[in-house]
Design brief:
about 425 residues, globular, Growth Hormone, Chain: A, 14 helices
């Protein structure tokens, strides 16, 4: 399949024979699970916040900061891990990151105070972000064209749903045992992935494709990546899609439970349906990656996001957000993100084949910066209005549409 399906130049000539090999199903499965672990840990213990505060003798603000420090760690870990792995290879840094993730998760489980929990969560986020960005870089190392779009959609489908289902999994754990067990779950998953990498993942970046040098060259690589109009435009679309997702995550419980009276179980079912819609959309895009250009999926997703935003805004402004409008709007909104985020990320990665780690680092960094920024903003209206959330969705969609156009092929006027 020609690479023009994702609007990127052919890069076969830059690859070594080993790097041109197919990404095996087992290796893709390992990458998918690695990219899901850290987002799952993002808010798996959120349902237990009151219990965490009581057990650690901490205020609500201090408990909330344990989530904030995780976001900071995730962003910094991805920003540092990608360029570093472009220099030294993927396998050893990935093994180190997963080992640290196991240890940090165990410390979280044993933390006796909010201060230690914050420190451990920072390290946990950093290691998780480091592992995520390297795992995504492995996909870029070993695939190209529609195969890369397909693989990135599969990876993003799971990684994108993980932070959404995190509170549901945490609630399940909490119903059976202590909130500390959620961190043992993360530690166990990280240990299994560490074993999977040891046994089944070889080095994907050969010596001739690595970038030597110090900090100056790393900064130069970052500048080179950001100078790509195609990369930067799709980076914005990718990051704003995560912002849209977390605008929903931060407010959906208030909209569906406080404003519309759903029980926790009914809310969980709606939450699961929306996560399922997002996953299904990403898998459909992966299935048809060799027939439909990735930018077409992004365009369809943005139109659907805009439509959902208009519906939610109208319902919030004039009808106090009735249940039917909320359920339909949220489902369309989240399903659309399954088309926007994965395909925008694949297009961005394809635009910078010489610096896959740096490209993945910037994608991951801005993705989590937007998640951490948008979530509290969306909740500014409190428990009884969804107007700020709807306004944020519309603003992010408009900005994404502009970035999408700027990242597209340049049109030239015919000579007259």
């Amino acid at each position: 399949m020609p690479t023009d399906m994702i609007d990127t130049p052919d890069r076969t000539a830059t690859r070594s024979p080993s790097a041109a090999s197919m990404l095996s199903a087992s290796m893709l499965g390992t990458v998918v699970l690695i990219t899901a672990i850290a987002p799952l840990a993002t808010d798996m213990y959120v349902p237990a916040f009151p219990l965490v505060g009581r057990d650690l003798d901490a205020s609500a603000t201090q408990v909330q900061l344990t989530l904030t420090t995780f976001f900071v760690g995730m962003a910094l870990g991805q920003l540092a891990g990608g360029p570093f792995s472009d220099r030294v290879g993927r396998r050893r840094p990935l093994l180190a990151a997963l080992g640290v993730l196991v240890l940090a998760s165990v410390v979280c489980a044993f933390s006796p105070s909010a201060a230690m929990m914050m420190a451990a969560r920072l390290v946990q986020g950093f290691a998780g972000g480091w592992a995520m960005v390297i795992a995504r870089s492995v996909v870029v190392d070993l695939t190209e064209g529609s195969a890369m779009v397909r693989a990135m959609n599969v990876v993003a489908a799971v990684a994108g749903v993980a932070p959404v289902i995190g509170p549901l999994a945490g609630a399940l754990v909490l119903s059976m045992t202590s909130w500390r067990v959620s961190f043992w779950v993360v530690a166990t998953l990280a240990a299994l992935m560490l074993l999977a990498v040891v046994l089944g993942m070889s080095e994907s970046l050969p010596d001739e494709r690595r970038h030597g040098g110090g900090l100056g060259q790393l900064l130069g690589a970052t500048g080179e990546v950001l100078s790509s109009r195609v990369f930067s435009g799709h980076l914005v679309v990718f990051a704003l899609s995560m912002g849209t997702t977390f605008a929903y995550v931060a407010t959906s419980a208030y909209v569906l439970q406080s404003m519309n009276g759903l029980t926790p179980l009914q809310y969980s079912l709606a939450f699961a349906a929306n996560a399922g819609g997002m996953t299904l959309a990403a898998f459909v895009a992966a299935r048809y990656a060799d027939r439909v250009p990735a930018r077409v999926f992004v365009k369809l997703g943005l139109w659907a996001t805009g439509g959902a935003g208009v519906l939610l805004a109208a319902a919030a402004l004039w009808f106090s957000m009735p249940l039917g409008a909320a359920l339909v709007g949220f489902f369309v909104l989240m399903t659309a993100q399954g088309l926007v985020g994965p395909n925008a990320g694949a297009l961005a990665s394809a635009a910078v084949p010489d610096h896959p780690g740096t490209g993945s680092a910037l994608l991951g960094f801005w993705q989590w910066v937007l998640a951490g920024t948008i979530a509290p903003l969306a909740g500014l209206g409190g428990e009884h209005t969804a107007v700020p959330m709807a306004a944020i969705v519309l603003a992010l969609t408009a900005a994404s549409a502009v970035a999408y156009r700027l990242a597209g092929p340049r049109r030239t006027r015919p000579l007259t």
